[in-house]
Amino acid sequence: MKTTDATPLNDNQVELDTPIKRGDTEIALVTLRKPTSGELRGLHLSELLQIDVASLIKLIPRITDLNEYEASRLDPADLFAIGTKVASFLLQKRMKTDASLVA
């Protein structure tokens, strides 16, 4: 997770419209990593693909540096942006290419 605006975004980063406060630090950039099968335990893939809020709040602390409380305090637009990244993690590369989701 980065907190500077000068860092260029990569495919696994989301710049938050509404930064999260953690003590004296402001988190404006969240880096996600592709979840492993074990990190998806207890979650329904279909709910993640539908960008289900409760499922995302459970998963975000497992694949980012945000904790569950911070995940639950995300701006809806930021949660949606993270949710779309999560949904793309669940697709095979071939499926992304077929759907023109890869440049």
UniProtKB/TrEMBL annotation:
This chain's protein is named: Phage tail assembly protein
Q: Which domain of life is it from?
A: Bacteria
Source organism per entry reads Pseudomonas soli
Q: Which InterPro entries does its entry note? A: Phage_tail_E/E
Cite a single Pfam family from the UniProt record: Phage_TAC_7
